[in-house]
């Protein structure tokens, strides 16, 4: 009995630690998986429709730092950005605010640890479609807290660049977190779920 306890206890502890470390919700809960991945990621690939010659009208994908809230068990689900009108993709957005944002657990230690290739659906990735919009004054405080707490360098970015806070206004969500193809999640499901 004593021996069993000694042998079982470390296994149970290890299982708990492993669950806490990965923490990814079950793949059936696609909305929760989406919220989990967004909160785990510090950046995303943002695709715009180029307004710059010679690419005008073609997709243009670029890296942006983001945050849906300060580090902690859960975020708001809203991807916030800190942008300047001098940035090439932001100039695209001024012409056409439609964009696509992709985040993936490949950006965290999770997939390497599990041995999942980034293209493997088990290395969960989320694709959003929508628009990138300036946040209003009410929301600015939270956007600033969310971004500056996870990207401390932002505070020292050149003041004369006219930085502003923006968010991804989500209209469509696709979740790739298991075999069998893309799953769709509505923005309502995404925002109403408890991550
Ligand atoms: C600011 O935006 C938030 C989130 O979209 C919204 O709930 C709030 O009503 C807006 N505030 C004002 C003053 O427009
Ligand atoms: C978000 O996108 C929807 C659909 O394109 C649009 O109707 C709505 O006005 C947008 N919200 C904001 C705050 O721009």
UniProtKB/TrEMBL annotation:
<feature type="domain" description="CREG-like beta-barrel">
    <location>
        <begin position="25"/>
        <end position="192"/>
    </location>
</feature>
<keyword id="KW-0964">Secreted</keyword>
<dbReference type="Pfam" id="PF13883">
    <property type="entry name" value="CREG_beta-barrel"/>
</dbReference>
<keyword id="KW-0732">Signal</keyword>
<dbReference type="InterPro" id="IPR055343">
    <property type="entry name" value="CREG_beta-barrel"/>
</dbReference>
<protein>
    <submittedName>
        <fullName>Cellular repressor of E1A stimulated genes 1</fullName>
    </submittedName>
</protein>
<feature type="signal peptide">
    <location>
        <begin position="1"/>
        <end position="23"/>
    </location>
</feature>
<dbReference type="GO" id="GO:0005737">
    <property type="term" value="C:cytoplasm"/>
</dbReference>
<dbReference type="GO" id="GO:0012505">
    <property type="term" value="C:endomembrane system"/>
</dbReference>
<dbReference type="GO" id="GO:0005615">
    <property type="term" value="C:extracellular space"/>
</dbReference>
<comment type="similarity">
    <text>Belongs to the CREG family.</text>
</comment>
<dbReference type="InterPro" id="IPR012349">
    <property type="entry name" value="Split_barrel_FMN-bd"/>
</dbReference>
<dbReference type="InterPro" id="IPR014631">
    <property type="entry name" value="CREG"/>
</dbReference>
<keyword id="KW-0325">Glycoprotein</keyword>
């Amino acid at each position: 009995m004593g021996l069993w306890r000694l042998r079982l206890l470390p296994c149970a502890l290890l299982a708990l630690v492993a669950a806490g470390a990965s923490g990814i919700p079950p793949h059936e809960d696609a909305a929760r998986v989406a919220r989990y991945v967004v909160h785990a990621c510090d950046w995303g690939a943002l695709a715009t429709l180029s307004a710059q010659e010679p690419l005008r009208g073609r997709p243009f994908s670029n890296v942006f730092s983001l945050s849906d809230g300060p580090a902690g068990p859960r975020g708001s689900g809203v991807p916030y950005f800190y942008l300047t009108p001098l940035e090439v993709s932001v100039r695209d957005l001024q012409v056409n605010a439609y964009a696509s944002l992709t985040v993936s657990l490949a950006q965290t230690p999770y997939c390497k640890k599990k041995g999942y290739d980034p293209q493997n659906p088990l290395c969960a990735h989320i694709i959003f479609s929508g628009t990138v919009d300036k946040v209003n004054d009410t929301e600015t405080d939270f956007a600033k807290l969310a971004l500056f707490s996870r990207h401390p360098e932002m505070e020292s970015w050149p003041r004369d660049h006219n930085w502003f806070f923006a968010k991804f206004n989500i209209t469509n969500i696709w979740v790739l977190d298991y075999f069998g193809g893309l799953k769709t999640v509505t923005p309502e499901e995404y925002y109403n779920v408890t991550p």
